[in-house]
Design goal:
This protein is elongated. The protein is mainly beta and about 1100 residues long. The chain has six domains: about 1-190, no CATH class; about 230-325, Immunoglobulins (Immunoglobulin-like); about 335-345 and about 355-525 and about 800-815, no CATH class; about 540-780, 3-Layer(aba) Sandwich (Rossmann fold); about 830-985, Immunoglobulin-like (Sandwich), CATH 2.60.40; about 995-1114, Sandwich (Immunoglobulin-like), CATH 2.60.40. Helices cover about 10% and strands about 35% of the residues. It is built from twelve helices and 70 strands. A hairpin with a 5-residue loop joins β22 (about 300-305) and β23 (about 315-325). The strands form 17 sheets. It has a nine-stranded mixed β-sheet.
Length: about 1100
């Protein structure tokens, strides 16, 4: 203690000769560095040629034990620990001008932190501050926590004496003997002596309009000097401009940003505060997502301000420009190699973006393969044959795609174990047309089937039946901004458990990467089925919930051929009845349950279970209607039933039961909704409600069990749009489920049930349908009939854009590659991904990998360069949005005792982009001495030994540039450089031909065609591109699988397509002939626009369309 006090007294005495830079801490055996402007964060020590000595000084509260090392000049030397207070070490003499790089190794954590700039340290920030007491005497204080801790630089303190110097600014001498004097030396850059800001006097010393802690001179990187240590600083904003026709979200990357921070634009149009601001922190950076309503705002250059709750703030002058607004389009692309190794996991990149300068609603991305292969968003993540992503990210909210954003996301596909092809399909879906397939949501392992069904029931009642319903719920209840898209399948599981009553602590939920959800409080109650039923054995009329005398409305719901399950809470008829009662509590709702008669043929007193012909139950319909009418009549006597107030809802044969009930009461129902009326093949004429209801509407599908359009059944006969890929049986039972989905989504606004007159239904002459009841709950006019056609096209899901890429599965391939999009759309950036791999036969892991890419400054706008995901093994690192340089350290412990330092940047002068992966020994901060210690092992179990880097850059706006080409170079350790293939992107307006097969209802799967015979099929070939498509040919094929291969599939016909302007289409019915030599079997029917491949198109991967059903060739 006496020795320590002597040290402190000596230091205090010396401090009176200069500024008082050391404060004695009361109650602590040590001292802290004062917050003064004389302290140099990230400072250097240089040798003057005289002997150097170091003493271990008392420090602040240091919980860790740290070792002091001299790293340069090497070899590294251990000197002492911070626990050896008072120990003095003589270091000897060094050559003049040599930098002495000291650092600490924190024993408890393994981190190494060095003096000097932040790029020497694993977290990229300075960890040492230098305070000069007098010439040749300096106090150096370290921060021992990753990320800088409290940044007071007193965790570990050492005193250096003797032959050391740093440049003293303004004394006219070359103090550190580096040949640079005073302001010519980088040590003096930004200091008051050299025209910089004095950070302590509340004045604008350098005349740049920025005072003290708002001036960048008061920062060393992200670390504020003196009193500015806790002030924020903006390091990056994206986008740098936005349109004045909507909302624009800016991702602002900041240092020292606090939760609750907000943002402001200040410029020609005055102050524009952020409507919404969210602070989000990743493992590598923190950013503020700020949304501004720029509608009608004055164009011009604006300053960007960020305000912390503690009144500290920062600004970036002139960093944002408001321009005339234009709504862009969401684009999507697949960045993949042309081949993949059989039986191995392949890394694929999906890129998407917003080409406009205002925000847009994030669409849904649906990713699948033609071979139903497992797909993952992360190497160890949730696997499914179809992957749904919410295409937000880029620094915006979870349900918004930020203006000008470009997002690149890796996915992982398991290749098959046999050679062949893999077809990658990516669809951009409008949210409203993407149904949630609740029935396909597999139970989590933490729950029994019964528990899971109850959870699903509760969650579904709140979340609805479409992704748009879920997104609206998330938007209303989730405070979450992100740089990545959201895995919708994982999000759905999370929300199901959160709302349905499961445990969020379950092991399976803990693995889901969904964060920052608000607490959701939503009471959920479901009406209960009354136990009061009829004594009639074969038919029960069951009231739902409490009966109301003199009800405002009555609903009679009658099931179809398959009956209903009274014990199943998920029975679709029961769920519909419960939902109606919930929405209309002053009404009475009755279920007509004639299940025994619907599944057995009743003949007089005998019941005979049907064997081969379920249509035999048609003979039970009148009997069932009579029994139901008797029970309804008793409810009528008690004031619970009134036919004139009744809406009758039926499915299949249930409509015929309802028709007979109406006739029994010798009156008219108010409304009849006739879902999937039974086909005339049932042996019974389909029901006709034109005389039995004041308003009647029928809903039919192309199911072979539905009544054909020949039958006029109601005042308005509609085609009911079905879910893509449903089979005939599901379509025939689709109507009741569809109506329930509308009620879950729109509640009392469901016009079909509560205000059908508000739908604006109109009869259509010379057409079997009066309209199409679409999946989003609206009604649209029917498609015009084709001349001489007896086929009727179904309105498909609205798919905004499709991309397809065929990848060949091979046994061997060049693993190092570069890919890009072959064609660039208007307003889209060039996007590139470089793949690298330590091959399976390698004998050691790679310690260092360097990737370079020389960009062409003549045709690329280097100022728009932005880094994308950086990936290796199971690690995916996302740089800040819009960043052109990035440094981070990935800790591989405990799996491997290694750190990986990643440095990525582009040289704005030369256009050289560089990525460097360096393995570091946590103890030394240097490359490992062990040659078998490296971050990238041989790729024996993909993707552990492969990786990728991605970036985007906009082409220059020149009409003379038609194609942009370049390649990359990859170096593993000290091996020879590997050049990737050169890749090219074409730009400019191009046509884009697509085809739809029409006149092919789903009953084609029951169609059997004899070899040598002909049949009719229709097609619509359309140019969805931006330029004229010259004459081409559309070809038709039979294929044994769901993809078209013109070289191997059976050609059954073709037709000439005339020259098509942008947006134009050609429609025709074609007579196709099956060749006599076609092998017998089941085939997919497909068509390909530009079948001869003569048109250069915007997208060469979307020419073909294949029907989901097959036909039999005999």
């Amino acid at each position: 203690m006496k020795n320590m006090l002597n040290i402190i007294i000596k230091l205090i005495k010396k401090s009176f000769l200069f500024s008082f830079v050391l404060l004695l801490s009361v109650g602590i055996d040590g001292f802290v560095l004062a917050q003064t402007n004389n302290r140099i964060i990230g400072g250097h020590l240089f040798s003057t040629g005289a002997p150097v000595q170091v003493e271990v000084a008392p420090s602040g509260v240091a919980f860790y034990t740290s070792e002091l090392w001299l790293f340069e000049p090497g070899p590294p030397r251990f000197l002492a620990t911070n626990r050896d207070v008072g120990q003095v070490i003589d270091l000897g003499v060094f050559d003049p001008g040599v930098e002495l790089v000291f650092g600490i190794v924190v024993r408890d954590t393994g981190w190494t932190f060095k003096m000097g700039p932040g790029d020497r340290n694993p977290d990229g920030i300075p960890h040492a501050a230098v305070e000069w007491l007098e010439p040749g005497v300096a106090v150096v204080g370290f921060e021992d926590l990753y990320g800088g801790g409290d940044r007071d630089y007193d965790d570990v303190v050492f005193i250096f004496r003797g032959g050391i110097a740093s440049e003293q600014c303004g004394n006219g001498r070359d103090d550190d003997q580096d040949g640079l004097v005073d302001c010519d030396d980088s040590d003096c850059r930004g200091t008051p002596e050299c025209g910089g800001e004095n950070c302590e006097n509340n004045q604008d010393d350098d005349g740049d309009g920025l005072v003290d802690c708002v001036d960048s001179d008061c920062f060393t990187g992200c670390v504020g000097i003196g009193r500015c240590s806790n002030w924020p600083r903006i390091t990056q904003i994206t986008p740098s401009s936005g349109g004045n026709s909507g909302t624009v979200t800016i991702a602002i990357t900041c240092c020292n940003i606090q939760q609750g921070a907000t943002a402001l634009l200040r410029g020609p149009g005055g102050d524009i505060p952020a409507q919404q601001a969210n602070v989000q922190t990743t493992s590598d950076f923190t950013f503020l997502s700020a949304s501004f309503d720029l509608t009608g705002k004055e164009p011009g250059v604006y300053d960007v301000y960020v305000f912390n709750p503690d009144d500290t703030y920062t600004l970036l002058p002139g960093s944002f420009t408001i321009k005339e607004g234009h709504t862009g389009e969401v684009w999507i692309d697949i960045l993949s190699r042309d081949v993949m190794r059989l039986g191995r996991t392949q890394r694929i990149l999906i890129a998407y973006g917003n080409s406009g300068n205002t925000d847009v609603e994030a669409p849904v991305i649906r990713i699948s393969t033609g071979q139903n292969l497992p797909i993952r968003l992360h190497p160890n993540g949730l696997a499914s044959n179809v992957l749904h992503l919410l295409a937000g990210g880029g620094g915006g909210s979870v349900s918004t795609l930020r203006a000008g954003a470009t997002v690149t996301v890796p996915i992982f596909i398991d290749a098959p174990n046999a050679p062949g092809n893999v077809d990658i399909n990516v669809e951009l879906l409008n949210q409203g047309n993407a149904p949630i397939l609740w029935e396909e949501l597999s139970p989590l392992p933490d729950y029994t089937q019964e528990q899971w069904e109850d959870i699903i029931t509760r969650a579904r009642s709140v979340l609805g039946d479409r992704w748009s319903d879920l997104m609206q719920f998330v938007q209303d209840n989730v405070n979450y901004s992100t740089v990545e898209p959201v895995h919708l399948d994982e999000l759905l599981y999370y929300m199901v458990i959160l709302i349905g009553g499961g445990s969020l602590e379950s092991s399976s939920i803990q693995s889901l990467d969904i964060k920052n959800l608000k607490t959701i409080n939503r009471d959920w109650t479901k009406p209960s089925i009354s136990s009061e039923t009829s004594d009639v054995q074969d038919v029960k009329v069951i009231p739902v919930g409490d009966l109301v005398v003199n009800p405002t409305r009555v609903y009679v719901i009658t099931h179809g051929l398959g009956g209903r399950n009274d014990t199943d809470p998920n029975d679709r008829f029961r769920k519909l009845a419960e939902k109606i009662k919930e929405l209309d509590p002053t009404a009475n709702v009755f279920l007509v349950d004639w299940t025994p008669l619907a599944v057995d043929h009743k003949f007089g007193p005998f019941i005979i279970p049907f064997a081969n012909d379920p249509w035999d139950v048609k003979d039970n319909i009148n009997f069932a209607a009579t029994l139901a009418s008797i029970q309804l009549a008793s409810y009528q006597l008690d004031g619970y039933f009134d036919l004139s107030k009744t809406t009758m809802i039926g499915e299949s044969f249930g409509n015929s039961v309802n028709e007979q009930i109406a006739k029994e009461f010798h009156g008219q129902a108010d409304l009849a909704l006739i879902f999937n009326p039974a086909s005339a093949d049932s042996g019974r004429t389909p029901p006709n409600f034109q005389e039995e209801a004041k308003l009647s509407i029928s809903f039919r599908t192309f199911s072979i069990f539905d009544a054909t359009p020949v039958w006029k059944l109601a005042d308005y006969d509609l085609l009911l749009e079905t879910k893509e890929g449903q089979n005939d049986e599901q379509e025939h039972t689709w109507g009741i489920q569809w109506l329930t989905e509308q009620l879950n989504r729109y509640g009392r606004d469901t016009k079909w049930l509560f205000n059908p007159n508000g739908l604006g239904l109109q009869s259509v002459d010379n057409h079997p349908f009066d309209g199409v009841a679409t999946l989003d709950g609206s009604v649209t006019p029917p498609e015009p009939l084709l001349r001489n056609s007896t086929f009727f096209p179904v309105n498909p899901f609205r798919i905004l854009e499709k991309k397809h890429r065929r990848v060949q599965v091979v046994g061997a391939m060049d693993p190092n590659d570069k890919v890009t999009s072959s064609v660039l759309g208007i307003g889209e950036p060039l996007r590139y991904t470089i793949f690298f791999e330590n091959i399976e036969s390698a004998t050691a892991p790679a310690q260092e990998v360097i990737i370079t890419d020389q960009l062409n400054l003549q045709n690329m706008d280097i100022s728009t360069f932005a880094l994308g995901p950086i990936a290796f093994g199971r690690y995916i690192i996302i740089p800040p949005p819009g960043s052109s340089s990035f440094t981070t350290v990935v800790d591989l412990r405990p799996d491997k005792n290694l750190l990986v330092k990643i440095e990525a940047e582009v040289n704005m002068t030369t256009g050289l982009a560089t990525w460097r992966f360096s393995s570091l020994d946590p103890q030394t901060g240097q490359l490992p001495d062990d040659p078998l210690a490296g971050f990238l092992p041989p790729n024996r179990i993909p993707p552990e030994g492969d990786g990728s880097v991605s970036f985007v850059v906009f082409p220059k706006e020149s009409e003379d540039i038609e194609s942009v080409c370049n390649q990359a170079t990859i170096v593993f350790d000290v091996n020879e450089p590997i050049n990737t293939p050169s890749v090219c992107t074409n730009r400019g307006d191009l046509p884009d031909l697509v085809v739809d097969i029409i006149g092919a209802p789903r009953f084609l799967k029951k169609l059997s065609i004899k070899r040598g015979s002909s049949f009719l099929i229709g097609d619509i070939t359309q140019n969805i591109g931006e330029a004229v498509a010259e004459s081409s040919r559309t070809k038709f094929f039979l294929s044994l699988d769901s993809t078209i291969d013109p070289a191997g599939d059976v050609l059954i016909g073709s037709r000439v397509i005339p020259k098509l302007n942008p947006g134009a289409r050609s429609i025709r019915i074609n007579k196709l002939k099956v060749p006599l030599n076609t092998p017998r079997g089941r085939y997919y029917l497909g068509a390909c626009a530009d079948g001869d491949g003569v048109i250069v198109e915007m997208n060469e991967d979307n020419n073909c369309k294949v029907l989901t059903n097959t036909i039999s060739i005999r």
